[in-house]
Structures are given as structure tokens and as C-alpha cells.
Specification:
It comes from Pseudooceanicola batsensis (strain ATCC BAA-863 / DSM 15984 / KCTC 12145 / HTCC2597) (Oceanicola batsensis). The chain is built from four helices and seven strands, in the order βααβββαβαββ. The chain is α+β, with helices and mostly antiparallel strands. The protein has a single domain, classed as Gcn5-related N-acetyltransferase (GNAT) (Aminopeptidase), CATH 3.40.630. 27% of the residues are buried.
């Protein structure tokens, strides 16, 4: 297996990135299924075209992070790569590029909440989910580099 490299996503990565998104959403039983696999691929293809997506690649795409400036829109890791440091590598790549990061995570996503807590993210506020597509309660998390705090 090749070493893990964090790189900009390319248009041909959309299928692999979309499959990771689809798989993750389907594994969360509390998450409503709002989009088909094809729609997920089209969505991440658009994010890739915008230049927002970085992937973890070791010969296969193991995870991805979509970031617009300081806002992280998505961070997902393939099932077989979870717990291996892929998510940490992706978020650390974003941390190296920005002095501040913000993201939303669902209240129900306990694993993600613990992950971000270990990385130093702080809760800024919670919502009832009325403003997100899934209509699920969520939490805004914020991270700031030490020099900025």
C-alpha cells in the first residue's frame, strides 16, 4: 500500500468521494436519506470543481474534507479507514491552512463530536435543525490556532 497523501481532489475522484459520502450517510441510522448515490456524486463533483475538496489518497481515496475558506462543509472517512488517522490528517491539513475553522455536526453524531473535541474544537452554539436540510439538531464547532486564542 502506498503512503497516505493529502492532495487536492480531481474531477475523476468524484465517484470515489461520492461513494464515501453515500456510505457514511447510510450507516448513520438517525440520518434521513435525502439523496441518491448519483446525486451525492454530482454534489461532490460540484464541490471539487469549486476547489474545496482535499482527499486522503494511498492508491485509493480513503477520506475527504470539503472546505470553503474557514468553513468545513464535510469530513468523511471510508469505512475501512476509520480509526487509522485519516480524519485527523485531513483536519490537520485544514488547520495548517487556516487560523480558524468552523463546522456543524449533528447532535446525534456522538463519534464526530468526540473526534472534534479531541482536536480542540469548542461548541459555539446549537440549533434545533430547522435551518439544515436534514432537519436534525446540530452544533456549531469552532477551532482557533493557539496564537489566535
Amino acid at each position: 500500500m502506498s503512503p497516505l497523501v493529502i492532495r487536492d481532489a480531481r474531477p475523476l475522484d468524484a465517484g470515489s468521494v461520492g461513494a464515501i459520502l453515500t456510505q457514511a450517510v447510510r450507516e448513520h441510522r438517525w440520518m434521513p436519506l435525502l439523496h441518491s448515490a448519483a446525486e451525492d456524486i454530482a454534489h461532490v463533483g460540484h464541490l471539487i470543481d469549486l476547489g474545496w475538496v482535499r482527499v486522503a489518497d494511498n492508491g485509493a481515496i480513503r477520506g475527504f474534507l470539503a472546505r470553503e475558506e474557514e468553513f468545513v462543509h464535510a469530513l468523511y472517512v471510508a469505512r475501512g479507514a476509520r480509526g487509522s488517522g485519516v480524519g485527523r490528517r485531513l483536519i490537520e491539513d485544514a488547520m495548517a491552512a487556516c487560523a480558524r475553522l468552523e463546522l456543524n455536526t449533528f447532535v446525534a453524531n456522538v463519534g464526530a463530536r468526540k473526534f472534534y473535541d479531541r482536536l480542540g474544537f469548542d461548541e459555539a452554539w446549537r440549533t434545533d435543525g430547522a435551518e439544515n436540510d436534514e432537519r436534525l439538531p446540530d452544533i456549531r464547532l469552532v477551532w482557533q490556532a493557539e496564537a489566535v486564542r
